[in-house]
Amino acid sequence: MRIGIIGAGAMARALGGGWAAAGHEIVVGARDAERAAGAAAEIGGGARGGTIADGVRFGEAVLLAVPVSALGEVLASGDYAGRTIVDCTNAFAPDSGKFVLAEDAVAERIAATAAGAHVVKAFNLCAAEVWAVTAREFDGQPLLVPLCGDDTTAVARVAALARDLKLEPFHAGGLAQARFLEATSAFVVGQWFGGHDARAMFPPLSATFAEVDG
Q1: Which is nearest to 5 in space by CA: 27, 21, 38?
Q2: Hey, is 127 helix, strand or coil?
């Protein structure tokens, strides 16, 4: 698959490196040509650096791996019509050691702005360091990746990209559900920063439902 990666930071390099290793073609687009070239070199697999417009033009799928504050400029810098947009952004606003959201529904804003694109929220729950490592199985279970999007073809495309990273994707709802995925990231990351194991808050699926009271 041809993937345009917009951004040259840790998320771009981590996800891009995994996709390049899986055989995908990648162009990294950024405002700074040197940073784009550096990220492409680190990603490897023949990845190339370019402008934001280059990345958008190249990709069948386009990963937005930029700060939310940069989205306005990024979305105005290319024609996203017909593209699958992979939105891994979080509008975090640090607040007293926890995390709150500066914006409630980033994925919905992207969809409203990028006319003709198909937005899928994905890869926003974990830090780049998680995507950068090759071991993505914990307690004997593969790491699940929730996907929120309305277009079935776009969701299937992003699911395939997740499987290429040895992850287990699942469709968690339409784009209207993405705001809850964004809120989940703020809550869970805040707990991690506070030293709490968010994973331990939930029982396994087999123990989730109680018997109906008689």
Answers
A1: 27
A2: coil
Q: Which residue type occupies 211?
A: E
Q: What's at 86, amino acid-wise?
A: V
Calpha distance 56→211 (Å, rounded):
51
Query: Which residue's structure tokens are 């992207």?
Result: 110
* Count of Cβ atoms closer than 10 Å to residue 125 Cβ: 20
Q: What does the pLDDT look like over 35-45, one tens digit per residue? A: 999 999 999 99
Q: Give the residue among 184, 141, 148, 149 at the shortest CA–CA distance from 166.
A: 141
Let me know how long the chain is. 214
DSSP string, 8-63: -SHHHHHHHHHHHHTT-EEEEE-SSHHHHHHHHHHH-TT-EEE-HHHHHHH-SEEE
pLDDT in tens, 101-110: 878 899 999 9
